[in-house]
Amino acid sequence: MHSSTATTTALANGVPAKLVTPKASPQPASKNEAPSSEHDHFFWSYTEEPHRTRRQAIIKAHPEVTKLCGPEPLTKYIVLAVISIQFFTAYLLRGSSPLSWPFLLSAYVVGATANQNLFLSIHEISHNLAFRSPIANRVFAIIANLPIAVPYSAAFRPYHLTHHKSLGVDGLDTDLPSAVEALLLDSVLGKAFFCTFQILFYALRPMFTYNLPITPLHLSNILTQLLFDYLIIRYLSASSLIYLILSSFLAGSLHPCAGHFIAEHYVLHPLQNAPTTTSSSDSATPVPETFSYYGPLNLLTYNVGLHNEHHDFPAVPWTRLPTLHAMANEFYKDLPQHRSWVGVMWQFVWDAEVGLWCRVKRTQGGRKVGTCAADRAAISAEGERIGGEEIGGGGGGGWRQDELGAGVGAEPAVPGLR
User: How far apart are CA 411 and CA 272, in angstroms?
Assistant: First the structure.
């Protein structure tokens, strides 16, 4: 399978442009070279990820957009309501066999939908968008984690923020499949296996990419979750805990809402004559690497489908992403988008020209978030900043105004930012 056939219009930073075959460009320095293996079919890029540039252009055209930033109070109430739904359903199923049809149907229809919602609430909370207080967001993420039955909220945040600061950077962005995954799963059965067990890939891949230091927050997340799981077994039943675990698995498996995992960054419509590498000297338009979805499943998933908008402005909460889209519509209306998450999974599995190779990768840029001080110092010394959050060192985790392009110095503070 090769990842460079099909016809479409390439778009960069919201401006449509026909893709053209690039001129030959000088070989990059060896330390920044993309793998030259004949088996490597990723799209390798030597340009900056597109979101920082578009963010600056949007703020220049619409300076009022920064007023959309800041926490959304509604989030905490929805999280508590969904937690209650899961508690109640686990209670009702306490005497049911995990192999019975009512149990399995409840886990798929109710549990998987609810836990996918909680996955994405933790995503919102990781950007400090539930409360103004950073510690309140950390604690509330642990609470939102409870019905998921497996502790992950504390580890998710630094890995996810690194995904934002290092989009597509090989060895940093843990959302990227490895060459081994892409090679071994390069078939219909392999891709079906990936879709079925994708939650396990996203859970385990980060640990094989780089390790995070264990902090008191991680320990609190783990111990709280273990205590909660014990209490579920003690006062309800093992079936209740199995329901919660199965709900989490199905939420990241062949479930309509799970389509967002693939839809967000996989290039399902590779460009005609698309280069396998692009550099700043190329005349080709860069391959789009983030895609939005504007359909009804956003109602269940904190508008995560508005993914270009989210990457452009991670400090804008889910309720205001549609406003952002409308406000800066000229930047978004012509970008490639998906119409169906179910359709995305169907195409991913059955289209021979689509697979895990269909991701844009770059060899440099970005930095890790939440790693040890030595890591932060080493990466900071490279001088690479691709937009993102200022965290670490006990900081509040807010988005800096200059990184949002909102100006510095004596300009008014951006609401909700630290």
Answer: 45
